[in-house]
Every structure is written in C-alpha cells, then in structure tokens.
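chain below, 298 aa
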Amino acid sequence: MTRWHRAAEDRSRDGVIDSALTDPRTRVLAIAGDRVPVADGRVAWSSPDVWTGMAARHVTDWAFLGRDDEGVPVVLAVLDSDAQPPWPGEASVATQPLRVASPDLPAVEADVAVTAVSLARWLSEAPFCPACGARTETRDAGWSRRCPSCGREHFPRTDPAVIVAVTHRHDPDRLLLGSNAAWADGRYSCFAGFVEAGESLENTVRREVREEAGVEVDEVRYQASQAWPYPRSLMVGFTAQAVDAGAARPDGEEILSVRWFGRDEIGEGLAGRGDLLLPGPASIAHRLISGWYAGGAS
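prediction:
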C-alpha cells in the first residue's frame, strides 16, 4: 500500500462493510485494544475469510476505514482486548502496542494503524448514550452511533492537546525540556497539556509552560500535528520562546525537573548516547526536538 484515502462518501452506502467482506482483495486490519498485527516491519493484513467461522467470535465490531491506492476496501475488525485469535501467517505475525509498532511501519501504514486504533477504542469503550444511558446503534460504517431511545447522534471524540518545545531568547543552542514525575530518571521531553474549555491553542501553550516550567513564553509558532489515541488526542505541536530563561522552575508535582539542554547534549540524546533519554521516533515530541536540533546543526 503506497497510498490510502478514507473514502468518507462510502460510509453512508448501504452494505458497504458486507460488500467489502465478500471481496477477497479486501485488507482487514484486526485491532485488539491498542495492539496492531505486524510482520517484518509491516502491517499484517488479514483477508476477510480469516474472520469467518470460529474466529468470528473474536470480532466485536466492524468499521470501514477507506480504500487503498488501487481502490481495494480497507476494513477494521475490532477484537476483544484480550483476544488471542489465529492471525494470518500465524507464527510470523506478532501483535505490538501502537507505540511500539508505529516507528517501524511505513508512513501510510502507520497512519492507517493510528486511525484503526482510535476508532476501535471508541467503538469498544463508548457503546452507551452519555445522555440517557441506552445502548446505541452503530451507523455510517462504524463512524457514528445513534441512540434509539433519545435520538442523539454521537461521533468519535478527539481531545485537542498542545505540545511545545521552548527555546532560549538569547542563545539559539539551548532548549528547555521537563521530566515528568511518572518517568524514569534522565527522561526529558517537551511540555504538553490538554486545551481547556474556551481556550485557544496559543493560550494553552502559554498556560501549560507557565504552570509546568514557571516561564512566560512568546513567539508561539505552530509546527505540526499528530493524531495520538492515548487516550484520544490530537497533539498540536508548537515552538515558543522563553521571555525570562532564568525563571525556569518545575511545578514539583507533575514536572519534577526542568533543564536547559545544549545542542550537543540533545544530539547525543537523539543518537541514543549519553544519559539523556528523549522521546521515541513515533512521537511528535521527537519531531519537535529533532527539528530544532536539525535547524541549528552545522
């Protein structure tokens, strides 16, 4: 698969999933919890017949993900989170958490896998109407739910969050990172947090850095975004400049340490050398840090 499109116009077509499951060319991506089937660094697609017969008992929901570059349907099979079904190729296939699998997958397959895990978790975790408590009915080929009791429609939830790499106003070779209380010693990353009600992305950046690192920032600039289904986030990445670099202090609760790192230290961390542990390549935090490093590398 070299390209993939969501083909949203097909979701409302009657029988789109049933039709796809009768097509032997259909690519089925089976997701259990956040685990993705992989083999040799690629997504391990199933054919529809793998999930018939006895294996069908593992499937709790189906959804239409779209079509590949040849127009072949791509379908999601949502499995019980603890399912241990027969996988295509059996011994050659391993299931890995998305966090582990995505760095090694081709970009287009990683994109499909993120979508599949996000949708699978919503289908598994939100079967009831939050307004009246009735069990909802799946619509739009897995992309919406309708409550038969109160008539409300529900859609997969996405929570916006910001993540920011903080730079030094007077020294372009220094980057401010923080160490979370839940992390191992030596692990540092960018500052991040969820957008609050009524708050802009830029104001969230300013608030989160102030709360976590004690500094005011300006020059807030958008860099990139990343869908991240932990739990259901859209991570929006920024860089920002510290107004007073000397004011940096951890909040002492969520963030236990903040430090200005030199470019050489960041380079060593990105290369996996030294004591500094940085985010893995699947994360937007890694992209922000490596982008800053590349921008000043000689």
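The two ends are 37 Å apart (CA to CA). DSSP finds six helices and 16 strands in the chain.
thats it, cya
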